[in-house]
């Protein structure tokens, strides 16, 4: 499995952010998309998830038969995709059933997933009762409960405290060591090994695909 | 898909879901008509079925604008768009759940509201049956409007403007089938079958158009 972008144009509506974006991410690797606010990180991620039309070039997931990149991916955007009026359990079980958990292999059961995020015992509460950070972590439980090889994360740790961020980084590392691919837009170092970086520079509209700027050793 | 049906049903029946709102609106519309028209029982019996139909039509438009909007606002729609499950099917199931939570109670309430209008027993039965068959069409047409207006903060009014003209055939054949059941020379079966055909037609076209509109709106 390999996530490849070739000669990609990143654009939203009529505004072109970048041309000729290229990257290749292997199994067990991560791509960190960095750059200032408004540079087009979220747009790129939504294009990878298949939520925005690709105006030029292509993004493909090689070695996945004819499955589309969208259905093989988890997308954790700014919004949590959880209903405030339903309990955490109802929310998560719904996604597990709706997303057909067995399609790419099996995810963790509910209690194991919430336990991994340090929120065991809160499953019966309405989602709206949780704090912003707890809501974010519960939304992450979806990534564990439904197995998808590619994780697309848009500033996943923005609302989290340091300990929770570290906990989440551990889960991402585990996903990568299980052969998953991670694409994350982030301002904070996630502490991942085997990470490439895609630095989006708004001034000269340049894109630099290189080794992780946060990491010390060279993995590219 | 069963999971989606159950979830949407739960959400509309819980507080803030708006399933009861339609019934209350329906009741309010029908209850004020005799005050406006006056106590002429024969006149009420004659125009009653049409008013019950119009009331049900307007009441089923309430809450339709939220059909996709709530899922868009919290990001659920993004995830639904990414799945291999055809979006058309997802839309159809959402429509079914919405109709079960809001349309079906209107259908069940219609004979009782017919009492306000001095409608005969036969006419009550005819209103019930035609609404049962015709009201899904309104939800399915409304889904297209809801999908088009999904990104607009005040989509409700636009939805009514888009949906009402398209639902006029449903109203015409629904009411004429009821009139056929009570007035002797007019036929019941022919307009009724056309009503069935309209519902089946929109069961195909509605989800297709709504899915296309949702895809186009996912910025």
Strand order of the largest sheet of chain A: 5-6-7-3-8-9
Briefly note the structural class of the backbone of chain B: mainly alpha
Order of helices and strands of chain B: HHHHHHHHHH
Name the overall outline of chain A: globular
Evaluate the radius of gyration of chain A: 17 Å
Count of distinct strands of chain A: 9
> What helical percentage do the residues of chain B reach?
over 70%
Tell me the β content of chain A: 25-35%
Order of helices and strands of chain A: EEEHEEHHHEHEEE
Individual helix count of chain A: 5
Distance between the termini of chain B: 25 Å
What would you say about this model in short?
The complex is a heterodimer of chains A (220) and B (219). Chain A contains five helices and nine strands; from the N terminus they run βββαββαααβαβββ. Chain A has 220 residues and is an alpha/beta fold.
Helices and strands in order, then pairings?
The complex is a heterodimer of chains A (220) and B (219).
Chain A: E1 2-12, E2 15-26, E3 30-34, H1 41-48, E4 58-62, E5 73-76, H2 88-98, H3 110-116, H4 132-145, E6 150-154, H5 162-177, E7 181-185, E8 195-201, E9 206-211
Helix pairs in contact in A: 2-4, 3-4
Chain B: H1 2-13, H2 19-37, H3 41-61, H4 66-73, H5 76-82, H6 87-114, H7 121-148, H8 155-166, H9 168-182, H10 189-217
Offer a few descriptive terms.
heterodimer; A: 220 residues; alpha/beta; six-stranded mixed β-sheet; three-stranded antiparallel β-sheet; 5 helices; 25% helix; globular; disordered C terminus; B: 219 residues; mainly alpha; 82% helix; elongated
Structural summary, described in words:
The complex is a heterodimer of chains A (220) and B (219). Chain A has 5 helices and 9 strands, in the order βββαββαααβαβββ. Chain A has helices at 41-48, 88-98, 110-116, 132-145, 162-177; strands spanning 2-12, 15-26, 30-34, 58-62, 73-76, 150-154, 181-185, 195-201, 206-211. Chain A has a 6-stranded mixed β-sheet, sandwiched between helices. Mean pLDDT of chain A is 86; it is low at 216-220. Chain B is mainly alpha-helical and 219 residues long. Chain B contains 10 helices and no strands.
């Amino acid at each position: 499995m390999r996530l490849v972008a070739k000669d990609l144009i990143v654009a939203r509506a009529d505004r072109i952010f970048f041309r000729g974006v290229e990257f290749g991410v292997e199994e067990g690797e991560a791509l960190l998309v960095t750059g200032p606010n408004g540079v087009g990180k979220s747009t790129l991620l939504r294009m990878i998830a298949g939520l925005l039309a690709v105006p030029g070039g292509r993004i493909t997931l090689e070695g996945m038969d004819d499955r589309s990149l969208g259905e093989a991916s988890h997308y954790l955007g700014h919004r949590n995709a959880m209903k405030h009026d339903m309990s955490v359990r109802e929310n998560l079980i719904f996604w597990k059933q709706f997303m057909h958990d067995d399609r790419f292999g099996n995810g963790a059961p509910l209690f194991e997933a919430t336990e991994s995020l340090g929120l065991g015992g809160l499953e019966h509460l309405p989602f709206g009762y949780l704090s912003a950070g707890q809501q974010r972590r519960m939304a992450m439980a979806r990534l564990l409960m439904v197995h998808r090889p590619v994780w697309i994360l848009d500033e996943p740790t923005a609302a989290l405290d340091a300990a929770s961020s570290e906990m989440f980084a551990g889960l991402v590392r585990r996903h990568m060591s299980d052969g998953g691919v991670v694409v994350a837009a982030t301002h904070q170092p996630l502490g991942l090994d085997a990470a490439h970086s895609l630095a989006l520079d708004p001034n000269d509209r340049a894109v630099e695909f290189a080794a992780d700027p946060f990491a010390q050793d060279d993995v590219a | 898909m069963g999971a989606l049906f159950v979830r949407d049903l739960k959400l509309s029946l819980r507080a803030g879901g708006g399933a009861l709102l339609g019934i209350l609106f329906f009741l309010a519309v029908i209850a004020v008509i005799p005050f406006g028209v006056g106590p002429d029982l024969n006149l009420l019996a004659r125009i009653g079925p049409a008013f019950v139909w119009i009331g049900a039509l307007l009441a089923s438009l309430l809450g339709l604008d939220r059909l996709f909007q709530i899922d868009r606002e919290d990001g659920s729609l993004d995830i639904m768009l990414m799945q291999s499950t055809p979006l058309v099917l997802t839309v159809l199931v959402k429509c079914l759940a919405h109709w079960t939570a809001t349309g079906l109670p209107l259908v069940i309430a219609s004979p009782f509201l017919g009492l306000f209008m001095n409608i005969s027993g036969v006419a009550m039965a005819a209103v019930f049956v035609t609404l049962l068959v015709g009201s899904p069409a309104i939800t399915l047409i409304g889904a297209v409007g809801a999908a088009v207006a999904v990104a607009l903060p005040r989509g409700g009014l636009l939805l009514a403007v888009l949906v009402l003209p398209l639902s006029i055939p449903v109203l015409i054949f629904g009411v004429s089938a009821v009139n056929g059941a009570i007035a002797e020379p007019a036929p019941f079966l022919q307009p009724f079958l056309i009503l069935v055909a309209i519902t089946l037609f929109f069961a195909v076209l509605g989800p297709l158009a709504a899915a296309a509109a949702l895809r186009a709106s996912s910025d």
